[in-house]
Amino acid sequence: MSTLSVRVRNPFLLRGSLEVVLEVARMDLANAEIEEIRGLLAAIPNSVRPTELQVPLAAARAALLAVRYFNQSRTRHWLREEMVNALLDLERALERHLRDAAGGG
């Protein structure tokens, strides 16, 4: 299984943000995508120190889809700016890595 290496500035903040994303986007995701995101959440360390996450391709695709659904929601506007920024950083990194993995980079 292929994985992507993603640099995360604040894993604790990202985890909280992704939990909100999962709750908001849950109805638009397939069960397999929900499970991939849950697995990703479990792999994120409970730390505020920057880290490198190893994200399986399926989890990366599911997280990217969920973030895109979340970005269309009203809840996005209620989230703290630092949480939105953590999601934007993740979205950009996943897009870049997935594009490179597909040979489009």
UniProtKB/TrEMBL annotation:
Taxonomically, which superkingdom? Bacteria
Organism for this UniProt entry: Symbiobacterium thermophilum
Query: Under what name is this protein listed?
Result: Uncharacterized protein
